[in-house]
Amino acid sequence: MKTNNAQRWIPIALNALIASALFSLGGQAQSQQTPDGRRFKLIPLEEMTPAQRELAESIRSGPRANVAGSAATAGTTPGSPFSVFLRSPEVGEHLQRVGSYIRFKSSLGFKLNELAILITARHWNAQYEWFAHHRLALQAGLDPQIAQSIAQGQRPANMPRDEALIYDFCTELHQQKIVSDSTYQAALERFGEQGLMDL
Q1: Residue in 22, 21, 14, 19 with CA at minimum distance from that of residue 177
Q2: Could you give the CA distance from residue 122 to residue 120 in angstroms, rounded to a whole number?
Q3: What is the DSSP letter of 77?
Q4: pLDDT for 132-190, tens place per residue?
Q5: End-to-end alpha-carbon separation of the chain, Å?
Q6: Which among 13, 64, 114, 163 has most CB atoms closer than 10 A?
C-alpha cells in the first residue's frame, strides 16, 4: 500500500494525543487509589500553587464553564481529567487549550466531532469518555442507532456520507494504525487539510 507523508504523521499525532488523554483520565488501580477511587486526588483551591490556581481558573472560565455537569466546573476544584493537568500546570494549560479547541471549535462541527470521539472511546473501551460524550453526540444530532452500533463494536448501517467518512477514517486509523489512500483522499476532498488535522 502506497503511503504519503500526511498519512505517516496522522497516526503519530493521534497516538500522542490519545496517550495524553489516557494518562489524564488516570485509570483505576486498586492499590493506588484515593478513597473516592481516583489515582490523582482533587487539589483543594487553598492547597494549590499559584501556577495551579491560574490553570484552574483558565479551565473554569473557558468554554467548558457553559457545559452543565462539566468536570471543569462541577465542584469547587476541577475534576478529572483536569485534576491530573494541575500536576504540571504548563503542560496542563497546553492540553486544556488543545482539548478546548477540539471540543468547541473543530472545523468538523459538533455532530461529526462527537462521532469521532465516540468511535475513539469505543476503540479504547474508555467508559468515562463514552459516558461523557454519548449524550453530547445525541444532542448534536447523531442518530441513536449509529451510537448503539458503535457501542456494540459494529459498523453502523445507513450512515450519511460525512458520518461514514469519519467512521472509516477513525476505524482504519485505530485498527490498522494507518489510513488507506482511498479513505484519506475521500476525507481530504470532503473536509480539507484542516478538517483532517482537527479529526
Answers
A1: 14
A2: 5
A3: S
A4: 899 999 999 999 999 999 999 999 999 999 999 999 999 999 999 999 999 999 999 99
A5: 22
A6: 114
